[in-house]
Amino acid sequence: MWLMALSVPLLPAIVMLYSRYRVKVATLCQRALAWALRLTRGRVCVKSTHAFVFTNCTHGKVDSVLETFDLYAQTHSTLCIGPEIREVLDEAVRRVRPLRVLELGTHCAYSSVRLLRLLPPAGRLITVELDPVTADLGEEIILVSGFKHSQFQVLTCSSAEAIPRLRSLLGPDAGTSEGFNLVLMDHDPQQYLPDLLALEREQLLCPSGCSVLLIKRNQGADDLRGILDHIRGRTECYSIKTELQCVMEIFYRK
Ligand SMILES: *[C@@H]1O[C@H](CO)[C@@H](O)[C@H](O)[C@H]1NC(C)=O
């Protein structure tokens, strides 16, 4: 009761604030809604993909896991990457032969599995996923494919939180002080540029050469504009290797 009495004099102020910041409030609400929708939709999608693959694949056989993903994708919409991106990804891994790979956005772990199967024996993958449920399901799929925890690590946090921790996770053994040789970005496109800058700042891009693959999910040209501007301003260390409608590969060398 007293709360109501207290809020009555505040009402004009609230109305005034609301009308002044109406557009901003509306934008914020829209963003929050879009984020919540993306999260729930993403989770539903990941859960049903996971259930299908987990029950229908031959455990321990990486090819069977990938085929079962494909089978699912024939009849359902999924977050798995399409054939065009697969080709670019496989080709990049075969060419670079990376020892250290970073993936931002694990999703169903389809691309994690695809990457891991082509890594040299000493190769290692660190994959970062913001949503804890998705991260757990993804980790299970990687294990079901026959890979061991000595070959990969799933970090459950935002990319911004993960990047400053990566140096210590790479470990002191030979060849790893150089950073990553391959980075796959498939998380929030708004984060692509800030994360690339953070990776540069933390010296996590291998100076002798690092391939950065950027997945374009919603075909939005705007998503990568910031990154493109950045690269064009630094042609001494960046070049564009491949540019397709749904994926772009840039190459970093210092
Ligand atoms: C396994 O595959 C069959 C046949 O394609 C499908 O009907 C079934 O729903 C799948 N299992 C799960 C748990 O999705």
From TrEMBL:
PROSITE patterns: SAM_OMT_I (PS51682)
Domain of life the protein comes from: Eukaryota
Family stated for the protein in its record: Belongs to the class I-like SAM-binding methyltransferase superfamily. Cation-dependent O-methyltransferase family.
Signal peptide extent: 1-17
Family annotation (Pfam families): Methyltransf_3
Keyword Chaperone included in the entry's annotation: no
Swiss-Prot/TrEMBL keywords: Catecholamine metabolism, Methyltransferase, Neurotransmitter degradation, S-adenosyl-L-methionine, Signal, Transferase
Gene3D superfamilies: Vaccinia Virus protein VP39
GO biological process per UniProt: catecholamine catabolic process; developmental process; dopamine metabolic process; methylation
InterPro entries reported for this sequence: SAM-dependent_MTases_sf, SAM_O-MeTrfase
Keyword presence, Lipid metabolism: no
Annotated EC: 2.1.1.6
Name of the protein described by the UniProt record: catechol O-methyltransferase
Molecular function, one GO term: catechol O-methyltransferase activity
